[in-house]
């Protein structure tokens, strides 16, 4: 349940070159530290609202199934194991990236085919992950929230950006596949790094 927190999740540390980035725009009149804090706070509140505080006392689907699927999915992503990575995606999976629409990977990508043909090629051609460090996880039945920090480099500009992140993932436990993926980051910093 949401009452359980898993810290220092070593199996979730992607070590491959591909980054997964996304998040809500913040005003450019707010300083960078405040933008990052606001982004993480909003993402955390959204995750808690979706999980539902009252769910702690309810009988939920097995948390360990969701955690195992997410760990395998992220491990495959980090190692560049596309066979495992794609096998864990539901055919109707939704990959959502909210932020500056000038960035070619931003938007909602509906369906496994769209993610593989649109999101991943655009993301891979434009950014490179330098580090990604998950440090906490919330599990509540079929929903998993992961929090941490990452640094990326934009390939077109060579600029780097650091950000805290929050990921909200929904798992189809019966099929053992990822149904949805929502990644929140400091999209202002990411957008600035992408602009020449």
Any descriptors?
alpha+beta, 7-stranded mixed β-sheet, 32% strand, 196 residues
Question: Can you tell me about this structure?
Answer:
The chain has 196 residues and is α+β, with helices and mostly antiparallel strands. Helices cover 34% and strands 32% of the residues. The protein has helices at residues 32-51, 63-79, 82-87, 112-126, 187-194, and strands at 5-7, 89-97, 107-110, 127-140, 143-154, 160-172, 177-184. A seven-stranded mixed sheet has the order 1-4-5-6-7-2-3, with helices on both faces. Residues 1-30 and 33-59 have low confidence and may be disordered.
Task: Furnish the topology, listing elements before pairings.
Blueprint: E1 5-7, H1 32-51, H2 63-79, H3 82-87, E2 89-97, E3 107-110, H4 112-126, E4 127-140, E5 143-154, E6 160-172, E7 177-184, H5 187-194
Parallel strand pairs: 2-7
Antiparallel strand pairs: 1-4, 2-3, 4-5, 5-6, 6-7
Shape: globular
- What series of H and E elements makes up the topology? EHHHEEHEEEEH
* Alpha plus pi helix count: 5
What portion of the residues fall into strands of 2 or more residues? 25-35%
Q: State the distance separating the first and last CA atoms.
A: 44 Å
Biggest β-sheet: count, sense, barrel?
7 strands, mixed
Alpha-beta content class: alpha+beta
- Give the helix proportion (percent range): 25-40%
Number of strands: 7
Strand order of the largest sheet: 1-4-5-6-7-2-3
Radius of gyration equals 16 Å
Low-confidence stretches: 1-30, 33-59
Mean pLDDT: 77
């Amino acid at each position: 349940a949401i009452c359980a927190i898993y810290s220092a999740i070593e199996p979730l540390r992607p070590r491959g070159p591909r980054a997964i980035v996304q998040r809500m725009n913040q005003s450019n009149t707010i300083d960078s530290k405040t933008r990052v804090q606001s982004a993480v706070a909003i993402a955390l509140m959204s995750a808690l609202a979706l999980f539902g505080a009252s769910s702690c006392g309810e009988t939920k689907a097995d948390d360990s199934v969701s955690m195992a699927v997410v760990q395998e999915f992220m491990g495959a992503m980090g190692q560049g194991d596309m066979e495992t990575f794609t096998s864990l995606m539901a055919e109707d999976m939704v990959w959502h990236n909210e932020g500056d629409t000038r960035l070619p990977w931003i938007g909602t990508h509906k369906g496994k085919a769209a993610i593989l043909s649109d999101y991943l090629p655009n993301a891979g051609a434009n950014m490179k992950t330098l580090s990604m460090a998950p440090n906490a996880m919330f599990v509540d039945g079929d929903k998993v929230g992961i929090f941490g920090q990452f640094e990326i480099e934009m390939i077109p500009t060579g600029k780097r950006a650091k950000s805290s992140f929050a990921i909200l993932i929904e798992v189809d436990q019966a099929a053992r596949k990822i149904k949805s993926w929502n990644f929140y980051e400091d999209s202002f910093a990411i957008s600035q790094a992408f602009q020449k």
